[in-house]
Request: fold
Amino acid sequence: MKNNITLIAEQLDRHAIAIIDNFLSKEVLDELLSESKHLFHKDELEPALIGRGITEQRVSEIRGDKIKWLENDQLTAAQEQYFNYLEQLREYLSNYFRIALPWFECHLATYPAGSFYARHVDQFRETNNRIFSVILYLNEDWKPEHGGQLRVYENGEFVDISPVAGRLVCFRSDLVEHEVLKTTQPRFSITGWIRRDEPTPVFL
Ligand code: OGA
Ligand code: NI
Reply:
């Protein structure tokens, strides 16, 4: 694990995006996938939103994924393994880039067949607290004709990254424009953001 973390930091130092394959064991990946599939089939995921507060909207023409935020005290054993890893990554990147990164947040994401996420950066317009985006893909036997690639733009060019099980991608949330191409199969992942602040409590 430590090696992977070092690799991610070094890749991010030189490139806009870091990509690591064969991440986590097959058992843990299978477990994370079947837990997500279960929630998806039970219809227990929420439509993802765009913006926040009064600008929050649900716009399926922009993004069609369904999500479930993961809470620290309600994790399955497999989710906890991944959380522990994100915690190490958060700490390592904070030391490596010498910036305060006290927090990360993460959610399960499922893109139903036919959905996509239009080109965007991962920061809300009115805040800038997300520093690194970290996505782990869970899809076994993903084929090019399934679509659903992560398209990452850099200097007028782009690369397409297939959402294959065990692939982890990490990039700067404020800088890297990206989109999810239309998928023809349900597409499963866990998306997280390493933040430079702790979330302010919401008072109702
Ligand atoms: C996002 C996002 C990309 C992906 O959730 O902001 O861009 O490949 N996800 O799932
Ligand atoms: Ni994004």
Summary: The radius of gyration is 16 Å. Residues 4-195 form a domain with the Jelly Rolls fold (CATH 2.60.120.620). The pocket of nickel (II) ion (ligand 2) is lined by residues 120, 122, 178 (CB under 6 Å).
